Amino acid sequence: MRYIHDKEDLTPYAGFLHRPEPEGFTAIIAGPLEAYGFDKTGRELNQFPTRRIQLSIHTWPPGKAHGSHHHKYWEQVYYIFSGQARVVVGDETRIVGAGGSAFMPANVEHDIEAVGDEEMVAAVVTCVVDDDNAGEED
What we know:
Blueprint: E1 25-31, H1 33-36, E2 48-49, E3 53-60, E4 74-82, E5 84-89, E6 92-96, E7 101-104, E8 110-115, E9 120-128
Parallel strand pairs: 1-2
Antiparallel strand pairs: 1-3, 3-9, 4-7, 4-9, 5-6, 5-8
């Protein structure tokens, strides 16, 4: 395993394996191998296979959204680098721009959508809250 990568080593992908995605992409920097190991063609998505944390970068055009969902075993933090996002966590909804952030606790419905006129770039840090289910896509 290599411990250091540069941007030429990143392998962005267009969508999650279990649903189609509109344009825009996500790069998985680190994550559980069981959850983010390979795409449908066998291409490795992870830059660094990890057990408890996941880091990804979303680069999304306006209008792209995750869709409302929750994670049974994971909590997440989003940080917006550029553009704007409509973020929903539970019953709270806000539009945030560069420098904005959001916390998604485990088992709480949430969504994020790129809004406004420019591309949204966000970092997503995910942490497993139940070691027995570290590699599960929940």
